[in-house]
Amino acid sequence: MSAAAPRAGGFRRADGLTLAHFWVAFGLFGVAALLGLYQLLERNGLVPASAATYYQAVTLHGVVMAFVLTTFFIVGFGFFVSSTSLGRPLKWPRLAWAGFFTMLGGTLIAAVSIAAGSATILYTFYPPMIAHAAFYIGAALLIVGSIPWIVITIAMTLDWKKENQGRPVPLPQFGMTANAVLWAWTMVGVVIEVVFQLLPASLGMTQTVDVGLARTLFSWTLHPIVYFWLIPAYVALYTMVPEAAGGYLFSDEMGRVVFVMLLVFSLPIGLHHVFVDPEQAAGWKLMHAFGTFLVALPTLLTGFTIAASLESAGRLRGGKGLFGWIRALPWGEPAALGGILGLFILLPGGFGGLINASYAMDVMVHNTMWITAHFHLIFGGTVVLIYFSAAYALWPRLTGRRLASRKMAAAQIWLWFLGVLVLTIPWHYVGLLWMPRRTAYSPYDPQIVARWQPYTPIMIVGGAMMVISAVLLLINLIAAHRSREIEADRSMAYADTLEPVVTVPKLLNGFTVWNWLLVVLMAISWAYPIGQFFFMEVHKALIWGPK
Amino acid sequence: MHVHPLEKRWAWIAVAMVAVMIGLVVYTAVAMSIHPPSHIEAIETARLHLTKEFAEDNLGVKREGDTVVARIVMARYHVEPPEITLPAGTPIVLRAASADVLHGLHVAGTNIGTQVVPGYVSEVHTTISFDAVSRVGVANADGSVTVPLYCNEYCGLGHQSMWARVRVTPK
Amino acid sequence: MAQPTPEERARMADVPRGTWALMGIIGLLLLAGWILLYFGRFLPLGPVR
To answer: In chain B, what are the domain boundaries?
Structure first.
């Protein structure tokens, strides 16, 4: 049996800490959503053209959505999950608060440098273009501020295991621990790049930068970071959504297998982000492509396990026949809806990922709008939708008040879901028509632009729908704080499993073996691609900036 | 560990699907030489203008034996030369270098796509399909088709203006 | 934590047959879509290396 979550009051929880993280995440998300709409309007001439403002907006939108919304949500969510799934108070809460304020400080410093125009290097850093040092310092503080979460999560798991020898670590915590281990491994690439290459350049200590090395180091981080975002969504899918939908988790063991596979397979595959770069050889790219296809497997397995869990809910609600359970799902329950719709989006989103992973085929889609469409679908769609549902599930527990309106919450999720589809479906198509991404406008031959023209109004409508949904989210969350309906039971209810979980194999209850395996896999996958820059002929490029 | 038989079957199907896809990728790589451009060649960006190969009068398209070679320099915010003519149905090699920052190079209707990274020469080997460019390009009076060559990697505030034209002649 | 009651088990007897059918269709769609894009869209643009 998975560990019971005690009644609220059985131990002290750090709900204020979680709410603080969530409010930073969702508050800034609202701002970034507006910037997204601005980009759509500017690109298509509906507001005055301004390249400088456009690229600034892309930078801020990307940094907030990809780094701030995510990290704050994940850390706040993680603290709540650790405490409630293990049934114990949060360990070292003062350290956790120190982490929060460090991340917040870093975010503000970076945001100011972006707003001032001194860091228009978008959100994937662009050496040899170098931003003002404040940007890198802010980014570094954001990363450093998340380290307390890593330490606390792992320490709480180890404490629990010592006191519960041989028993399975509760699945929610197992998933979040995998995520903490993953994040520790993930950050190494970008930290080395920032500390040893970009920050010194921005401080005037160096005049050149090895761009090939910088891009390779960044690519170390770039793939596993999306799994750092995805794993908490999967924790919600496995352990919260089935419960919210009124069903059971189909398989606890498969959940563990998936978390382990995500950890091990998402790290040694970053070169697929530099498939068309001239500084890496084909053999290494092909090896990373192979690994990238392997990391599709845990998601394919998750599709089955979560669909089966939803099927249990649908059948319990009276759905009959082969597919009647789909109709019977709780399409109006906000704590489940984001999971259901997010799972659906995994199909087109995952499909796009398979295309991008396919080695030479990346030539066709790289840096086109197809790529932008893909991650807006898989991240803006699946991950964010599940984050919404998790927020609606947690809010009554965090605040002690019921949601002011379940209907408004469900409507907000539906609107986001539909907006994402309306935005991204045409986006994929214009990407296949070679429309380049990250351009402030399209001053190309009119016949070329005309081919893309029919789709832009549709995309603008999609973006507008998403902005309205973002505003509605904030309204719903604020209203929840002031709701007059009290939520008496603030305990967290995690999904029950169809079959009792008595014991699990050691390999699915800890990460020691997997960490050692990662040492080997990372050495094989990265030693040469990174090491080559230290013995091959390399010409560093002059830096451009800082302002 | 208990796994439901249907889930086990699905797991095998997932593995088989993934095996088919990566298998086809590896097959086309090995048997048909289909790779993303991965030719590693270092060059000193700051001295690009002093090289023989990327000197201004050597840029553009030349026939060298059986191959057609195109040489391009990308620099903020201009592609040099801004118009090149390439034959369809003929093996071509495109060599591009950056004179300053990161750029991207993508020719619509073709598989010419690469990052142009300062410090490296990008080299792409391909054969253009006239059918493919006809479908996305602009037909010219002389029977050729013009397609855009985009810089598609952010290179600064003038990035959107950075593009060129490729005139493709039928073989 | 609670396991399903016998009555619930009866109602869920068909799980995961619906999922199996659904995922089978999804798998076919994914594979077909990939093959279409790889051989129908990407390779016809020309060989590349």
So the answer is: 1-35, 45-169
Mean pLDDT of A86-105: 97
- The pLDDT-based confidence of A4 (bands split at 50, 70, 90) is very low
**Exposure b/e, B23-34, CB count within 10 A at least 16 = b:** ebbeebbeeeeb
3-state secondary structure of A261: helix
pLDDT above 70 covers a percentage of chain B that reads: 100
Nearest CB partner across the interface for C22, out of A307, A496, A500 = A307
Q: Which subunits count as partners of chain C given 3+ CB pairs below 8 Å?
A: A, B
* Dihedral sign of CA atoms A279, A281, A286, A287 in order: negative
Q: Residue B26 pLDDT more than 80?
A: yes
Of residues C23, C38, C48, nearest to A303 (C-beta): C23
**pLDDT higher than 50, residue A6:** no
Tell which of B30, B79, B94, B101 to mutate to test the A interface (max A CBs under 10 Å). B101
Do residue B111 and residue C46 have CB atoms under 8 angstroms apart? yes
Q: List, by residue number, the catalytic residues of A.
A: 223, 227, 374-376, 437-438
Distance from C-alpha of A396 to C-alpha of A403, rounded to nearest angstrom: 6
Residue appearing with tokens 């009554």: A396
Q: 10 Å Cβ neighbour count for B141?
A: 5
Instruction: From chain C, pick out residues whose CB is under 8 angstroms from the CB of B112.
Output: 48
Mean pLDDT of chain C: 95
CA separation (Å) from B107 to A100, A365, A443?
Answer: 46, 11, 16
Question: Model confidence over B57-116: pLDDT tens digits?
Answer: 999 999 998 899 999 999 999 999 999 999 999 999 999 999 999 999 999 999 999 999
Question: Would you call B32 and C47 a contact, using CB atoms and an 8 Å cutoff?
Answer: yes
CATH, residue A388: 1.20.210.10
The token pair at A64 is: 């907030």
Q: Under the phi-then-psi rule, with left for phi > 0, alpha for psi from -120 to 50, and beta for the rest, what region is A276?
A: alpha
Under a CB-based contact definition with an 8 Å cutoff, are residues B98 and A349 in contact?
Answer: no
Mean pLDDT confidence for A476-488: 94
Buried/exposed code over A427-460 (b: 16+ C-beta within 10 A; e: otherwise):
bbbbbbbbbbbbbbbbebeeebeebbeebbeebb
Q: In the 8-state DSSP scheme, what is residue A7? A: P
- Contact of C12 with chain B, judged by CB distance below 8 Å, is answered with no
Cβ within 8 Å of C, B 30-89: 32-38
Q: Domain for residue A4, yes or no?
A: no
Q: Residue A94, Cβ neighbours under 10 Å: how many?
A: 8
Residue A31 Cα to chain centre, angstroms: 18
For residue A107, being part of any structural domain is answered with yes
Which single residue is written with the structure tokens 């932008």?
A: A372
Shortest Cα distance, chain C CAs vs residue A321, angstroms: 8
pLDDT greater than 60 at residue A364: yes
Which residue in chain B is spatially nearest to C33 when comparing CA positions? B21
| Confidence at C2, pLDDT banded by 50, 70, 90 | confident
What does pLDDT average to over chain A? 95
Is the full-model pTM beyond 0.95? yes
Domain count, chain A: 1
The pLDDT assigned to A312 comes to 97
CATH number attached to the domain at B45-169: 2.60.40.420
A505, amino acid identity:
P
Alpha-carbon gap, residue A486 to A493, rounded angstroms: 17
CA distance from start to end of chain C:
57
What is the domain extent for residue A149? 15-542
Stretch A120-133: mean pLDDT: 92
Picking from A35, A200, A34, A24, the residue whose alpha carbon sits closest to that of residue A105 is: A24
Q: Chain B partners of A212 at a C-beta cutoff of 8 Å? A: 117, 119-120
pLDDT at B171 over 80: no
Would A9 be classed as within a structural domain? no
Q: Which residue has 């959940």 as its token pair?
A: A255
